[in-house]
Amino acid sequence: MTVIKNDENELVPTRLVTSWRVCIDYRKLNEATRKDHFPLPFLDQMLERLARNEYYYFLDGFSGYFQIPIDPKDQEKTTFTCPYGTFTYKRMTFGLCNAPGTFQRCMMAIFHDIIEQTMESHFMVKEGIILGHKISKNGIEVDKAKIEVISNLPHPTTIKGIRSFLGHAGFYRRFIKDFSKISRPMTHLLEKNSPFIFSNECIQALRTLKDKLTEALILIAPNWDQPFEL
Predict the structure, then answer these.
(1) 148: domain CATH number?
(2) What is the pTM of this model?
(3) How far apart are CA 117 and CA 122, in angstroms?
């Protein structure tokens, strides 16, 4: 199979192991889809509730989305074509706008009585990676593996590259004091009619963000049982 980079259609990237992962561009389908606004949990709140415990249980769901069947009359809407032919999904796949809400609703129904007490199965461990963060009794830390990837990112050469880097770094913005001020030279390039000149200020901002991520401290979740003074 020859895989050609195509920003306008389906993309079949090679996985790190031995198989393929099919990524379908469902933007037009999502535009026509009636939205399911089921509330998703806030990442920060979940991390704060999970951190500072002595032991953890980690249970990784196997092919979670594929456990949810698609109504037969709607399956044809997921049709896609690739070098091997034309196919239709019988089970929910990522890329569909209502997939996260549907999956969260199922998880709430199944685990409503033990939600966030259990989460590949690891029992009685003292730390672990969840939602891109390392949690332990000490608090919340960045995932070093992801930080290494961000640190090795090259200087952006396009607007898309700027958005990509700021998206990666911004995921950990709570660990970086004055993130918005530091990243301002780069965010300025995203403004309408702004010429793309990756100046020395942008280079310095990029380096500063990378340095602060590699030196990020441990965040301790507040104890909501204690009084707060403003």
Answers:
(1) 3.30.70
(2) 0.56
(3) 13
DSSP 8-state assignment for residue 224: T
For 190, the domain range is 143-214
Q: What is the 3-state secondary structure (H, E, C) of 72-127?
A: HHHHHHHCEEECCEEECCCECCCCCCCHHHHHHHHHHHHHCCCCCCCCCCEEEECE
Structural tokens at position 64: 């979670």
Q: pLDDT means per 10 residues in the chain (230 residues)?
A: 50 56 89 89 77 74 84 94 90 92 86 54 70 84 89 88 91 91 93 89 93 86 79
List, in sequence order, every residue forming a beta bridge with 85; answer none if it has no partner: 82
Question: For the chain, how many structural domains are there in total?
Answer: 1
For 37, phi then psi, to 5°, come to -90, 50
